[in-house]
Amino acid sequence: MKKITVKDILKMKGKKKIVMITAYDYPFAKLVDEAGVDIILVGDSAGMVVHGLPSTIPVTMDMMLTHVASVARAKPRALIVGDMPFLSYEASIEEAVRNAGLMLKSGAEAVKIEGGSEMVDVVKALVRAGIPVMGHIGLTPQRYLLLGGYRRRGVKEYEAEKIIEDAKELEKAGAFSIVIEFTAADIAEEITREVSVPTICIGSGPYCDGQVLVLHDLLGIYEEIPPFAKKYADLRRIVIDSVKKYAEEVRNGVFPERKHYFFSKRRGAEK
Ligand code: KIV
Ligand code: NA
């Protein structure tokens, strides 16, 4: 099937729901692509779900480039979006362009940055450099210190207005889509109606052009997941049970079986 481009994503607005999921490496990029998702987000959530960090703040460009390159080697049909980590795009426009450019050189086909109206200059500069940009508003985890934690957004009127304004500014600046995280569903609905680019929601209700989930939440790798995520599998159980079985078979001498080993010529090189 034909490679999905930024143009294809834009055309899906109002016609077909956009399915985005995170992946951080070659094997899972292969699997989620085979499942037919539209966008693979190489999220900085990697810091938490893959590296065991307490937040996304410590995630570096080097970490992200390694993940992006690993995903890109799977040659997915889905659009690959590389998440810009904290401090890779805030300090200066020049740094932002260089770092986003490195994402593309590693195989990303677009980048995502957190922030609304305050990031307009950065979005414009990236687009000018030929780098497609996905926005990210509402709950922006890289700013959890400023926001007072991972809290619901857009319940109060002043916050709702700011988030709607953020979306409009990002659209004007040239973002090709906007992630809306943990924001009141009616506010996400209004944004989806008011902007011409697709909205992709997480924890912001059903009235968006698409949805995104963190792969490890969906697969049930961890016991705890955010309130807005859904477990579609219990991979934690499957992994633990499989490794337990392996350990038991090693300890009981059941594994390896005869088909798993060979002999030298001394024994006539028996198969
Ligand atoms: O890093 C990530 O996984 C994300 C999504 C939750 C949107 O930014
Ligand atoms: Na992220």
Automatic annotation (TrEMBL):
Assigned keywords, A-Z: Coenzyme A biosynthesis, Cytoplasm, Magnesium, Metal-binding, Methyltransferase, Transferase
Binding site for Mg(2+): D44, D83, E114
Keyword Ligase: no
Cofactor note: Binds 1 Mg(2+) ion per subunit.
Principal subcellular localisation of the protein: cytoplasm
Superkingdom of the organism of origin: Archaea
InterPro entries hit by this protein: Pantoate_hydroxy_MeTrfase, Pyrv/PenolPyrv_kinase-like_dom, Pyrv_kinase-like_dom_sf
Enzyme active site: E181
GO cellular component: cytoplasm
Swiss-Prot/TrEMBL cofactor(s): Mg(2+)
Compartments it resides in: Cytoplasm
Pathway membership: Cofactor biosynthesis; coenzyme A biosynthesis; Cofactor biosynthesis; (R)-pantothenate biosynthesis; (R)-pantoate from 3-methyl-2-oxobutanoate: step 1/2
Example GO BP: pantothenate biosynthetic process
One Pfam family named in its UniProt record: Pantoate_transf
GO molecular function, one term: methyltransferase activity
EC number in record: 2.1.2.11
Catalytic reaction list: (6R)-5,10-methylene-5,6,7,8-tetrahydrofolate + 3-methyl-2-oxobutanoate + H2O = 2-dehydropantoate + (6S)-5,6,7,8-tetrahydrofolate
List of residues binding 3-methyl-2-oxobutanoate: D44, S45, D83, K112
The family this protein is said to belong to: Belongs to the PanB family.
Stated role: Catalyzes the reversible reaction in which hydroxymethyl group from 5,10-methylenetetrahydrofolate is transferred onto alpha-ketoisovalerate to form ketopantoate.
Subunit note: Homodecamer; pentamer of dimers.
Protein name: 3-methyl-2-oxobutanoate hydroxymethyltransferase
Annotated source species: Staphylothermus hellenicus (strain DSM 12710 / JCM 10830 / BK20S6-10-b1 / P8)
Gene: panB
